């Protein structure tokens, strides 16, 4: 649970998103209200419902990025879905409850990964011992026959290690030493192998490792038929019924070590604890981002042969209001999941939603269209700024990419111009413009080690002006 104040949340969002202050303010309050709710008396806590949000604005202005960054700040399960992918119950397509199943699956994966990291150190120690057992199987000394009266010496067992090549040889001679001596020699040899392994001098050796395999023909047939959408997960049921098979596979020591670490970590993770924590996170901290909510709003005065849009809203309504959804991990209550809806609402408006749905999204924020100054800031200011990304990508090839300030302003101006002439896709236009500008450098960078490439406004115009002026060509390139 994030303990950041609304102002601190906005500061964090400012690192990645330019402008849209109203939207940032709204989501910051929503996130802080979650923390506040946890401090309220338990009797009243369950009565406090989240204040769901509708973001209104054209594509590419930061709606999805705001929700995604918010979930990352909150360390909460987050899923993004298009409302237009759902269909009314009774039609072929995804049912609305599947979003909660997907969110729960994601939460289980998230918690399992966290638990795996906590036991990773211990898993590595156990995996190392298992690997040494494969490299040097324990030597069994035959027990002496109790009825024998002979005074023959015990059989000697000698284990030698070639430290240069990691070669392993076990030699048995006629005289036999005592069990304690064999154990001591075995221990010394094992420690030598441990040292060689940690130094990476056994990386070229191979070991035989047993790999478990799931018999899946029936499972694949069922999963191909869309059974993952059923309340009772038939796919998982068949996976549990089908026997597991193991086979020996020869793998290199480093790969064997990674397999053993993963196997031991999975054994150490308490899945009951993982599932319990994941369910709690979904119910208390889950965030669902419903994009294209305007696509399930029927336009006034029109009829359509498509699947009932109002029917999809009515199927979404109980989930947003608060209901119990059956998943393979148990019942998930959606009462306190935060829903953030978004849409352009070009030909429709939020008031065209059914009244019950409107009441479940009390907060509405309008995001501004981006202008040239916003594009310049997007190219330069965020921690993941596009210019910085391209500079670092070229640096991997030894190419120094320098883009002058006037070139950046020219790029922003071209992006705005193309958005005005054609479909306005917001900041996503910067990706296409930059790719077109840097196409030649990106293609030849592997042969330009040590070269410095400087790009100014004249170079931008030379590369892009012809494409911008030719409307037919720019439709396909920009």
Give the topology.
Elements: H1 6-14, H2 21-39, H3 42-45, E1 53-56, H4 63-74, E2 78-82, H5 98-135, E3 155-162, E4 167-176, H6 179-198, E5 206-214, H7 217-224, H8 234-241, E6 244-252, H9 253-268, H10 271-285, E7 287-291, H11 309-321, E8 324-327, E9 330-333, E10 338-343, H12 355-359, E11 363-366, H13 372-380, H14 386-395, E12 400-403, H15 405-421, H16 428-437, H17 439-444, E13 452-455, H18 457-469, H19 471-477
Parallel strand pairs: 1-10, 1-11, 2-7, 7-10, 12-13
Antiparallel strand pairs: 3-4, 5-6, 8-9
CATH topology of the domain at 6-110 and 275-366: Rossmann fold
Largest pleated sheet:
5 strands, parallel
Binned strand content: 15-25%
Poorly predicted sequence stretches spanning 5 or more consecutive residues: 148-159, 163-167, 169-177, 216-232
Please work out how many helical segments DSSP would assign: 19
Can you tell me the CATH superfamily of the domain at 6-110 and 275-366? P-loop containing nucleotide triphosphate hydrolases
Radius of gyration from the alpha-carbon trace, in angstroms:
31 Å
- Number of beta strands: 13
Characterize the overall form: globular
Please state how the strands of the largest beta sheet are arranged side by side.
Answer: 2-7-10-1-11
> What is the CATH class name of the domain at 6-110 and 275-366?
Alpha Beta
Structural class: alpha/beta
Helix content bin = 40-55%
Average pLDDT, rounded to a whole number, is 78
Span of the ends, CA to CA: 42 Å
Q: Would you identify the CATH architecture of the domain at 6-110 and 275-366? A: 3-Layer(aba) Sandwich
């Amino acid at each position: 649970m994030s303990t950041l104040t609304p102002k601190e949340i906005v500061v964090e969002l400012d690192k990645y998103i330019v402008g849209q202050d109203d939207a940032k303010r709204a989501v910051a309050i929503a996130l802080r209200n979650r923390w506040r709710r946890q401090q309220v008396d338990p009797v009243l806590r369950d009565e406090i419902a989240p204040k769901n949000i509708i973001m209104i604005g054209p594509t590419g202005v930061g709606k999805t990025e705001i929700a995604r960054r918010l979930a990352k700040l909150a360390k909460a399960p987050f899923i993004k879905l298009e409302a237009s992918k759902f269909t009314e119950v009774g039609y072929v397509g995804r049912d609305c409850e599947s979003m909660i199943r997907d969110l729960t699956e994601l939460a289980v994966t998230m918690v399992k990964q966290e638990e795996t990291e906590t036991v990773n150190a211990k898993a590595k120690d156990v995996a190392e011992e298992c690997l040494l057992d494969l490299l040097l199987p324990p030597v069994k000394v035959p027990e002496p026959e109790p009825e024998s009266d002979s005074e023959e010496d015990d059989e000697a067992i000698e284990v030698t290690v070639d430290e240069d090549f990691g070669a392993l040889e076990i030699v048995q001679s006629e005289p036999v030493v005592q069990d304690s001596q064999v154990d001591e020699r075995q221990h010394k040899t094992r420690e030598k192998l441990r040292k060689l392994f940690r130094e990476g001098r056994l990386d070229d050796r191979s070991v035989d490792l047993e790999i478990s395999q799931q018999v899946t023909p029936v499972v694949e047939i069922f999963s191909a038929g869309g059974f993952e959408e059923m309340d009772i997960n038939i796919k998982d049921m068949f996976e549990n019924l089908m026997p597991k098979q193991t086979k020996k596979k020869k793998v290199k020591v480093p790969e064997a070590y990674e397999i053993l670490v993963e196997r031991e970590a999975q054994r150490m993770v308490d899945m009951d604890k993982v599932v319990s924590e994941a369910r709690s996170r979904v119910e208390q901290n889950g965030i669902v981002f419903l994009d294209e909510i305007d696509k399930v709003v029927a336009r006034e005065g029109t009829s359509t042969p498509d699947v009932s849009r109002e029917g999809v809203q009515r199927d979404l309504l109980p989930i947003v209001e608060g209901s119990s959804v059956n998943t393979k991990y148990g019942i998930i209550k959606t009462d306190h999941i935060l829903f953030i809806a978004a849409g352009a609402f070009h030909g429709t408006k939020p008031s065209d939603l059914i009244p019950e749905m409107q009441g479940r999204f009390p907060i509405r924020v309008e995001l501004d269209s981006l202008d040239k100054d916003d594009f310049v800031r997007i190219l330069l200011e965020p921690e993941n700024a596009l210019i910085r990304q391209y500079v670092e990508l070229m640096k991997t090839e030894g190419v120094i990419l320098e883009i002058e300030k006037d070139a950046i302003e020219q790029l922003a101006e071209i992006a705005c111009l193309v958005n005005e002439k054609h479909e306005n896709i917001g900041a996503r236009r910067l990706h296409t413009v930059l790719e077109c500008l840097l196409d030649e450098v990106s293609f030849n960078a592997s042969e330009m080690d040590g070269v410095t490439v400087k790009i100014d406004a004249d170079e931008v115009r030379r590369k892009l002006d012809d494409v911008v002026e030719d409307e037919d060509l720019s439709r396909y390139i920009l």
